[in-house]
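agent> Task received from the user: take the single chain below, predict its 3D structure, and emit structure tokens. No templates, no multimer pairing.
agent> Plan: (1) validate residues, (2) run structure prediction, (3) serialize to tokens, (4) report one or two observations.
agent> Step 1 OK, no nonstandard residues flagged.
tool_call: predict_structure(input=
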Amino acid sequence: MKLLRTTAFLGAMCALLVLPALVYGLDKGTGRLISVTPADGGCVAGPSGNTTEAWDIQPGFTYTITIDNVTECANGGTDPTLNVRVNSSIPGHEYTDLVANYVSPGVYQFSFTLPPEAWCTLPILYCTVPGEWLTTGLFVRRHDGKLNPNGVPYTAHLRASTWGPGCTNPTPILGPECGAVGTEESSWGAIKTIYR
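)
tool_result: status=success, residues=196
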């Protein structure tokens, strides 16, 4: 019974996290995360992962991030700038609105400094409106455009990681929002009370 309540609670929590994106129509665009390069000595590894793709980066450092295949906005990927946003679960840094600069048709670059207290993964969106973090933007795809069995593209995220000597052995930093979700015996009852 406790397992059933825990499963139901986790399902409800996932729905709470996913539904806003569905309600507001946030989708995956054609843009792909193709390069993450350290600008000031930080470590980087990736891309890795068979589904959502991760680029491991080091908190406290700045990276030059390149996306290509942007066609849905910025005048078909030819405008001199493109609004982008990096989302996170870092308290006080839930999202960072940035401006990417034109490199060539459909290709844009921007700089992003990962806060020192970062954890979890950080999805990137483009075609955003600054300050409208819940209702605008398209998620970037994997660098290779890989699709799931239903034909839906997988996304690419930055991932906060610790590193061994010489930028070896990246280990994801797990925080409260990305680690295992604990539940109390009364969790399901609290959820039911809220939604009655």
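agent> Step 4: summary for the user.
Helices lie at 2-23, 74-77, 187-194.
agent> Done.
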